[in-house]
Design a protein that fits this description.
Elements (H helix, E strand, L loop, with lengths): L6 E11 L3 E6 L4 E6 L1 H5 L9 E6 L6 E8 L1
Parallel strand pairs: 3-5
Antiparallel strand pairs: 1-2, 1-4, 2-3, 4-5
């Protein structure tokens, strides 16, 4: 799978879990588990409940995602 074969979706953080895991409610109504990408973790970007985020999902597993961007 190439790096371009990802699905980008928008969502809102509904719950913060241990080990930088988050529950994300997507705009289409689904709820997924997400973890932070390397750059967000490297630069200590804080994510709290209610933040709007952009996630990348693999087409093979649509229940997990990687948080790549935090909007205000």
């Amino acid at each position: 799978m190439a790096k371009d074969d990802v699905i980008e979706v928008q969502g809102i953080i509904t719950d913060c879990l241990p080990n930088t895991l988050f529950k994300i409610k997507l705009d289409n109504g689904h709820e997924i588990m997400g973890h932070l990408s390397g750059k967000l973790r490297q630069h200590f970007i804080r994510i709290v409940e209610g933040d709007r985020v952009t996630c990348e999902m693999s087409p093979y597993d649509l229940s997990k995602g990687r948080i790549t961007w935090r909007s205000k």
